[in-house]
Each structure stands twice: as C-alpha cells, then as structure tokens.
Amino acid sequence: MRDTINSAMKQAMRDKEVLRLSTLRLVMAAIKDKDIAARVDGVDNSVSDEEILAILGKMIKQRKDSAVAYSSAGRTELAIQELSEIEIITEFLPIQLSEEEVQGVVQKVITETEASSIRDMGKVMAILKKTYAGQMDFGIAGSIVKKLLG
C-alpha cells in the first residue's frame, strides 16, 4: 500500500498536480511519523497496511470535520480544498460499505461476540475496526451498535 501511494505521489509530481502532490505528501508524512513511533530499541517495525488504512481513515475524518468548520465560518474555498483532499485520500481506501451493509456487519459481529448490552460496545467496535479498517465510517457503525445494544 505504501508503494502504491508513493507511486501516485511521483506521478502527481510528474503531472504537476499541486493539490494531489501536497495531499499525498501529507499522507506519506503521517505514515513516516507512525513508522518512527513504532521503532523500538532501534528495530524497524514498519506500519502494516491495516495501520495505513487506519491513518487514511483518521485523515479523512479530520478533513470532514475541517470542511464543516470552514463551511460554517463562510470559508467555502477552504472547505472545497478539504473535500478535494478527501477525494484524493479515498482513492487508496477499499470500497466503502453502505449503511445497510454496515448494519448487517454490525449485527453479525454482535451475534458472533454474543454482545448483549452497551457494556459490550467496546468489544464489538474493536472487532469492527480490526476487520473493516478503511471500509466503513465508524461513527455510523458506533451509532448502529448503540442502537442495537442500548
């Protein structure tokens, strides 16, 4: 996954796509930061593809929040830039599950884990995040879990 992003960054450089290049540089910087944080006693523990998916998901969430803040402040040009960055980052994520598919997956995980109350929400969310990183909006998944367990 890292190689795919790096190749896309090089292509953006060749094509002189300024926004795409800057966004992909931010993605690579976030991955590099995680690599550095993962080093233990000089041993190189590179981040896995699952962790890269989590990084991308976090970056998208940050940009969504920023776009909303910019829109409410009347800064539409900045909101549009954030939304454009979301589109670029999304290209590297697996296909997103629809809300109905998320509902089905959540129900399946609740059944498999035998979750019965809101206290089991953490257990259910941990499995969802591990299994479906980058494939679903965990804000939506969390509200569905609350509704089903609450």
Can you describe what's shown?
The structure is a single chain. With 150 residues, the protein is mainly α. The protein contains 7 helices and no strands. The protein starts with a helix and ends with a helix. The mean pLDDT is 90.
Give a short synopsis of this structure.
The chain has 150 residues and is mainly α. It contains 7 helices and no strands.
Keywords:
150 residues; mainly alpha; Hypothetical Protein Yqey, Chain: A, domain1; 7 helices; globular
For this structure, the quaternary state is single chain
The CATH superfamily name of the largest domain is Uncharacterised protein YqeY/AIM41, N-terminal domain
User: What is the residue-averaged pLDDT?
Assistant: 90
Query: Count of helices?
Result: 7
List low-confidence stretches. none
Task: Return the CATH architecture of the largest domain.
Answer: Orthogonal Bundle
- Work out the strand percent: under 5%
CATH class of the largest domain, please? Answer: Mainly Alpha
Q: How many DSSP E strands?
A: 0
Q: Alpha-carbon distance between the termini?
A: 38 Å
Per the CATH scheme, the topology name of the largest domain is Hypothetical Protein Yqey, Chain: A, domain1
| Cα radius of gyration in angstroms | 18 Å
SSE pattern, N- to C-terminal: HHHHHHH
Instruction: Please tell me what the overall shape is.
Output: globular
Biggest pleated-sheet summary: none
Structural class: mainly alpha
Helical coverage, percent range: over 70%
Architecture blueprint of SSEs:
Elements: H1 2-15, H2 18-38, H3 49-72, H4 76-90, H5 99-113, H6 121-131, H7 138-149
Helix pairs in contact: 1-2, 2-4, 3-4, 5-6, 5-7, 6-7
